[in-house]
Specification:
Shape: globular
Strand content: 15-25%
Number of strands: 7
Structural class: alpha/beta
Order of helices and strands: HHEHEHEHEHEHEHHE
Distance between the termini: 28 Å
Helix content: 25-40%
Largest sheet: 7 strands, mixed
Length: 236
C-alpha cells in the first residue's frame, strides 16, 4: 500500500467513488442466491463469534457502526437481538443517511458526516462495527485516522468488529483489499481473532447460476476461494 500525501480530501474522494457505483445493484440484492448465501454465512459467523466471546445478552451491548449506509446492518443487528436504543451509526453520504433514518426506529442514533470527527472518544462503546468501509478508503493516512477514532470509542474489554475483503478487485479501481496484516497495523494495541469467510463473489454468482448448493460446497471444500475476513479486534 502506498500512502497518499494528503488525507484531508479522502472524504470527498469517497463521495465521488460512491457516486460512480450502480444504485440498487442487483448483484447485492438478497433475491440473488449468491448474495443471500453470503449474507446468511456472515450472520452465522457473527453469532458464533458472539457466543465464543461469551456475549450472550446482545441487548445489553452498545454498538456503533462506522459507515452505516442505508441502515441495512443496523436492521440486521436488531433482528439478531441488539436493542435499538443501544445502536448508533455514522454515515458520510447524506442520501444514505436519509434512507437509514426513514428505515430505523427513532431510538437508533444516526449521525451524518465524517466519522473521524463524529465518533465518540470517551471509550463508551462495547463494539464498533465496520463492514466493507476500509476497502473503499484509498488513502493510508485516512485509514489510520479512522481506525484511531474507532479505537478511541471502544471500552476496555470491548472491541472492533471488522468485515472486509482482503484481495484487490482488478475490475474496480475504486476499492482495494485490506489484508489481515494491514488490520493488525491499523490496531497495534488490539488482539485480533480472524476467520476467513465469503466465497469470492464472482465465483459465487457463477456457481449459484448452476445451483445455489454449489456455494456451500465450494466454500467448504476450497477455503482459499474465500475473499473476506470477519475479525474481532479486542481492546485490553
Amino acid at each position: 500500500m502506498s500512502p497518499h500525501n494528503d488525507d484531508s480530501a479522502e472524504p470527498e474522494s469517497v463521495r465521488e467513488r460512491y457516486a460512480r457505483r450502480l444504485a440498487n445493484d442487483p448483484r447485492y440484492s438478497l433475491l440473488n442466491p449468491a448474495a443471500l448465501r453470503a449474507w446468511q454465512e456472515r450472520q452465522r459467523a457473527m453469532l458464533a463469534l458472539f457466543k465464543r466471546l461469551g456475549r450472550a445478552d446482545l441487548s445489553a451491548l452498545k454498538l456503533l457502526e462506522v459507515g452505516s449506509g442505508s441502515g441495512g446492518n443496523l436492521i440486521e443487528l436488531v433482528m439478531l437481538g441488539f436493542a435499538p436504543a443501544h445502536l448508533a451509526g455514522i454515515e458520510l453520504l447524506p442520501e444514505r443517511h436519509a434512507i437509514a433514518r426513514a428505515r430505523l426506529p427513532e431510538s437508533v442514533r444516526l449521525m451524518q458526516g465524517d466519522a473521524t470527527a463524529l465518533a465518540p472518544r470517551d471509550a463508551s462503546v462495547d463494539i464498533v462495527l465496520q463492514s466493507t468501509v476500509f476497502s473503499s478508503l484509498l488513502d493510508d493516512a485516512f485509514q489510520q485516522r479512522l481506525a484511531d477514532a474507532m479505537w478511541a470509542a471502544v471500552k476496555p474489554g470491548g472491541g472492533v468488529l471488522w468485515y472486509d475483503f482482503t484481495v484487490d478487485n482488478p475490475r474496480n479501481p475504486d476499492v482495494r483489499g485490506v489484508p489481515l496484516a494491514r488490520v493488525r497495523e491499523l490496531f497495534p494495541a488490539g488482539r485480533v481473532q480472524a476467520r476467513r469467510i465469503t466465497l469470492a463473489p464472482p465465483i459465487a454468482r457463477a456457481a449459484c447460476r448452476v445451483h445455489p448448493a454449489l456455494y456451500t460446497l465450494l466454500n467448504n471444500t476450497l477455503p482459499l476461494l474465500r475473499t473476506h475476513v470477519l475479525a474481532w479486534i479486542a481492546k485490553p
